[in-house]
Design brief:
By secondary structure, this protein is an all-alpha fold. It is built from six helices and no strands.
């Protein structure tokens, strides 16, 4: 119960920061995707099932904040990324400094690129593939800069409020 509230608080804080603080700190007009970064950090710390749940919730929150139809693209992309990171986490060094950086870079590119491809496929976006790629790279680099802070915060919270049951997928 408390763990769910902690996750909800982290996602709410990330959403508020992403929509109110980081537009003023945009690089080239692009801001980081803190909700995706939080999803990746929780999945890296706690596994695939947590990544799946947090990814869906964070993606749905991102979809509702963007208010761009069709709602659900971010939820799908974040869910897949959260689950995938959780599945591959046993193969990554959990105390490594470079693993969070590499994950932030890779998932930033895959997340934004995946959103762009799915949105174009569904006819919801007129953005060119070049714009999607440029956005993905810049957002991924921005996420990589913020990854140490986000991963350390979530590692502390997750250590203090661990999952109630150890369910691994």
């Amino acid at each position: 119960m408390i763990r769910g509230l902690i996750i909800a608080l982290v996602l709410f804080t990330a959403a508020v920061a992403q929509t109110s603080v980081f537009p003023h700190l945009a690089i080239g007009g692009f801001r980081p995707d803190l909700l995706l970064l939080a999803t990746v950090a929780f999945a890296f710390r706690d596994g695939a099932l947590t990544g799946l749940y947090v990814g869906f919730a964070a993606g749905l929150l991102a979809d509702l904040l963007l208010a761009v139809p069709p709602v659900g693209i971010n939820a799908l992309v974040f869910l897949v990324i959260g689950y995938t990171v959780g599945v591959v986490r046993p193969y990554l060094a959990s105390e490594s400094v470079t693993a969070p950086l590499a994950l932030a870079l890779a998932t930033g590119i895959i997340g934004i690129g995946g959103y762009g491809v799915v949105a174009r496929t569904l006819g919801a976006s007129e953005a060119s593939l070049g714009l999607v790629l440029r956005t993905a790279v810049i957002v991924a680099l921005y996420d990589t800069l913020l990854a140490p802070v986000v991963f350390a915060t979530i590692r502390r919270l997750s250590g203090r409020y661990p999952p109630e049951r150890a369910v691994q997928i």
